[in-house]
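Q&A log
Question type: sequence-to-structure
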Amino acid sequence: MQRTSPFTFLPWNGVFFPFEKIYEKEKVVLIVSRLVENPKRISLALRSWKELMSDDRLADWKLVIVGSGSDENNYKSYVAENDIKNIYFEGNKNPLPYYQKASVFLMTSALESWGLTITEAQQFGAYGPTPPRTPMAPVSVFIALPSKGSILLRGSLAELA
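Response status: OK
Response body:
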């Protein structure tokens, strides 16, 4: 067999979320990340969550954070000191069951070319507001579609909340 294309195509063998299960999603906003402030900016999510939890209509939503890192204790202290409700730090765990439950995926990184966690979350049907530092054209087009997610301005706490 003679090769006629300069490209090699590999079949996708990943797991796709069955569309019919979309209605089984829980009221969970998920972050999967290293817990380091620079460049991940988890504090932006925590400050936004504090604001969101002041709205009684959102009292049954949870912010679940999967990952660990050097700023983890700082984040936990901030949550405790500010008495922010419904935030769960899960530590370093397999994110698969969390993606399967989450309705919303959140990435607050200041700098990402294309975070793999975006693809993972979309694979499991989680809508994703994603504020990258400098939206690149392909990322902007893909995420800006209403069914795929949103791009927010850098450091926009009001938009994130």
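Response note: The two ends are 56 Å apart (CA to CA).
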